Amino acid sequence: MGEDQDILDRLAALAGIEPAYHDIWGERRALSRPSKCALLAAMGLAAETAAEAAKSLAGLEWAAWQRLLDPVVVRVAQGDAPLAAPIHHPASAAVGYLAWALTEEDGARHTGRVRVADLPLMARHATGDGIFERRALPLPANLPLGYHRLEAVLDAGRDPVADATTLIVAPPQCYLPDMLTKAPGLWGFALQIYGLAGPRSWGMGDFGELGRFAERARELGADVIGLNPTNALFIGNPAHASPYAPSHRGFLNPLYIDIEAVPEFAACEPAHVDVATPAFQMRLAAARASRDVDYAAVVALKLPILEQLYATFRAAASAARAADFARFRLAGGAALADFATFEALSEHIRRGKIGHFPWRDWPAAYRDPTSPEVAAFATAHSERVGFYKYLQWEAERQLAAAAARADGMALGLYRDLALGADPHGAEGWTQQRSLAFGATLGAPPDPFNPQGQNWGLPPFNPIALRERAYGPFIDLLRANMRHAGALRVDHVLGFNRLFWIPAGEAAASGGYVRAPLDDLVAITALESQRARCVVVGEDLGTVPDGLRERLAAAAILSCRLLYFEREPDGAFRRPEAYPALAHVAVGTHDLPTFPGYWRGRDIELFAALGLFPSVAAAQSARGERAAARQAPITALIGEGLWPEGRAVPASASADLVAAAYAFLARGRGRLLMVQLEDVLGQVEQTNLPGTTSGYDNWCRKLPVAGAALANDPRLTSLARLLRSIRPASAAGLA
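The structure corresponding to this sequence follows.
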């Protein structure tokens, strides 16, 4: 048993599975044998029996040596320092020669031939097939940043061995404009797009409302507009509204399309007739008047009209617009075709029903996107597939238009890349080779969630991701950096490690799986520089030692929240103690708004939903919160932002909210984000983590919208204060 356990442990370690973790209380929690086996199985490594584990271990160890070239090579350019790529070969082949060719991304080509024994020896490895060696192949000097192809042929007197790899040459740091490298830094507003439900919207905020708000925010002096993820959700299951569990992170949510801004709307007589009917107007008025977004109502209003607009486009599109759509389809390639096919196929299988219909429950022939049956379906339903491509095209056009209306801001739109996607969605269907469906992501137990958290999102399989040269990860970065001056990477701790939970098990049975940190950071830096897009890493939670320093070295901004930045005695940390390269804010969408925090609304919600382990625990939380209200007041008094001796207010008035943001604005953190919910006095928070019922997540409209929002005195007054501390950038990006 001891030897068998040793083999299993070696296999788990080689696969990146950590043997144990220390929880937030400092207790060491070892990963059980069943959990190790389950996580290995999720990566495609069988280990239930000793024989399976031994075979998987041998295969994984051998995999690093059996190829002449690694599946991908990532190198960071450091001035004129030479770069090299590893090659692997039998020791006996050292007498042979290696011919190589490197084709740069732009087509420039380099070639060479070298005696293998003349290459620097890096390591040796003994296998059942003999001794193998790893040597360093020097690369041409001054290679440009980018994605290149390296090919090699080893000729050692037998049959030549040929191989090829993707060579990624990356910069050492992400893009960082001059305005974020010096004081006083920038400020802007954070919002949920759907919450911008003004009188012109169709029941929820859209890209048109976003563009109008961006113009007004620019006039107020803001340099950035932070957005919730804009990714595609489930149009056939409107209740599934979380932007952090989308159907596909590479595509947009078509419900954000501003119907009346679609070019075809003006000429579409059937749409105008339908919209003008009393029944439609009554439903539209109800959707606009509702306190929360009624996603089912929005789908019922928008989808039929969008279908009519597509029919008008097909019948009478101008040559210029038709050509633009053709270019969009060509640029989208197979990824766009697969996504649109999924949407049409999912709709076809639902046959008018509403709800989740997991693709794993579809007829077997349709579960594989490469099957002949799927291809036949796409051909037979080409018009419907085309409709879903049209929705993506129009959503992309309108997002670009909203970004254009933010011109003049230093950063403009600040987008958000969710950690994962719902396993039942389009990303799960199209990325089956890259995802580990036998596990879900989550977090270990902590005081807020004593049982831990299970987010239900499948992780990327790190072995498969590397085999695909990180292609799916690169595609997601590119898709979410479009039309953005900054990108927030949700749970950037995943660049270092992620908490995997065996499918169907409790969160406490999970464990950490390491990720290729250096490669992911390098690729992010390359895409950031190309898109001229600042990167912010959401690094809240249990942060591994040294990770924040590693991310800062790559110019990835940290996230620092007023709620959490405390000294050991509970006092709020002074603003000058915050790191310079940081996104600073009062809270996030997963935390109470400042008015809600002050009233203890989150505590009352947790108590009402039975999320406290006992009545005593709820009472203790209430007492702690009442006492905690003095800490921010003390901090504000220390900065001269609150009158000494004034009583602690019972509610977070507009002047208290303004003082809290002025406190952060005076600090070193270069990027200050203001939540509109705080400014407008909204008590209910956007999302209550750990709840799927009992609380309406991801649907709260702002209490003020449209022109009234743009001119709200609380907003204009706070903007005036922040401008006095952090003047707006007139020069834009450096």
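The mean pLDDT is 95.
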